[in-house]
Amino acid sequence: MKRENFLQMISDGFLVNPIVAILGPRQSGKTTLTRQYINTIKTEKPIHYFDLEDPNDLAALKSPKAVLENLKGLIVIDEVQRVKELFPVLRVLVDVVNLKQQYLILGSASQELIKQSSETLAGRIEYIELPPFQYCEVKNLEKLWIRGGFPRSFLSVNDSSSYRWRESYIRTFLERDIPNLGIKIPAENIRRFWMMLANNHGGILNASDIGKSLSISHTTVRHYLDILVATFMVRQLYPWFENISKRQIKSPKIYVRDSGILHNLLQIRTNRDLFNHLKLGASWEGFALEELIKHHNFRSQDCYFWSTQNKAEIDLFTINHGKRIAYEFKFTDSPKITPSMRIAIEDLKLDELYVLCPGNKKYQIEDKIIFCGLEKYLESY
């Protein structure tokens, strides 16, 4: 599947910077996207590819300056987080040694986790986050919801194969990928913590309660959470604060970012399992939230929820092109206007409030409040 939007982002990135970084979770399609990009330019410049999971390439880049300084054209470095010492060398190469080089680097951790890149390459690098598949690419909302967007999960021959692939993915992530980042934590500890977050999916983080349940400190809870956020497994949605007198929630909400991974952690194998599960509404909320963020390419730091101590709340709040827009995600065929929505319109001075539900209908029920099927919204906006 050709992901044209991201191919264009790479091309645009190289118009401004000599280094483009594609960051995203393992198996989200970074390597495939890179090969597609190479196919679009292969007649224009030399291509050099280093995969740092290949022992030979990893050994070669133990002396990166000697290997890279005489190369010209596009230099691809896959799984760059395995050799963080590369970043100071890349700065020297793009600044001094060879102005005829471009670097496309791929990583399975956020720029916050690969701190050297943000500190060393400031002003020289463009970051692109590549998520798993989204609705605009696959046009099958129900299948995307149950299986999630990881290509091998979504494209599996049936739900059973998809579920088994995700189970293997989770095991590999815990037992190999996290240790490869230099993080020394027993895999079972992270799994238990991740499963607890899945059971609290869409809820407010209470680090003390989770710590007591797992017999770990609240600081360890924060450390585990930081790891899962930095590896694109979990979204931490922070609260928005208005200068109003009402007491507001200050802790973040937590979501497992990929709905398929969430369903494995909750042992949901089929649509029937999902529709009979207590977390059905929370699963829909997280799935719709992620699709919306990917659809609009919202930055994480521009996305908030809003909640007050008297239970008035909004699932997602953002300011987009100067407009204050809020979203509620409801798994229902007949959504209703709630007092909470009217309070939010007044307190947050909203321009629009969308209530996104299953289905393909759209209608405005009241000034500033629009009910819309998620599929209809993703097709229309």
Q: Which structural class do the helices and strands define?
A: alpha/beta
Total count of strands: 14
Helix content: 40-55%
Q: Calculate the terminal CA-CA distance, rounded to whole Å.
A: 23 Å
Shape: globular
Q: Identify the quaternary structure here.
A: single chain
| Count of the separate structural domains | 2
Discrete helix count: 18
Largest beta-sheet characterization: 9 strands, mixed
| Average pLDDT figure | 92
Low-confidence stretches: none
Order of strands in the sheet with the most strands?
6-8-7-9-10-11-12-14-13
Pfam family, one: DUF4143
Keywords: ATP-binding, Nucleotide-binding
Protein name: ATP-binding protein
GO molecular function, one term: ATP binding
Output the keywords.
single chain; alpha/beta; Rossmann fold; 5-stranded parallel sheet; nucleotide-binding; DUF4143; ATP binding; P-loop_NTPase; ATP-binding
Describe the overall structure.
The chain has helices at residues 4-16, 30-41, 55-60, 64-68, 86-97, 115-120, 135-138, 141-147, 151-154, 159-180, 187-199, 207-214, 218-230, 259-265, 271-275, 280-296, 339-347, 374-380; strands at 19-23, 47-51, 73-78, 101-107, 125-129, 203-204, 234-239, 253-256, 304-307, 313-320, 323-329, 352-357, 362-366, 369-373. The chain has 2 domains: 4-129, P-loop containing nucleotide triphosphate hydrolases (Rossmann fold); 135-380, no CATH class. Helix 5 (86-97) links the parallel strand 3 (73-78) and strand 4 (101-107). It is globular, with a radius of gyration of 22 Å. With 381 residues, it is α/β, with parallel strands linked by helices. It contains 18 helices and 14 strands. The model has no long low-confidence stretch (mean pLDDT 92).
